[in-house]
Write a structure and sequence with these properties.
Length: 64
């Protein structure tokens, strides 16, 4: 069972060119602008601040 993404989780950004970056989830906001502590539902639209811009084809995965 997968654990939901939460604030302060460490996330690895895997880029198509092979460059991998580790960042921390700084903020999660729902469609209405309300702050969330986690991403509780699959398919829910959320905005996640990783403190680093993402590009098309970047893949995110939570670091354990």
């Amino acid at each position: 069972r997968q654990r939901q993404m939460c604030i302060r989780d460490r996330i690895e950004i895997m880029k198509p060119d092979g460059e991998n970056l580790t960042v921390t989830v700084k903020r999660i906001v729902d469609e209405d602008g309300a702050d969330m502590e986690s991403a509780p539902h699959p398919k829910q639209v959320l905005y996640i601040d990783l403190g680093h811009p993402l590009e098309k084809y970047d893949i995110l995965r939570r670091k354990e």
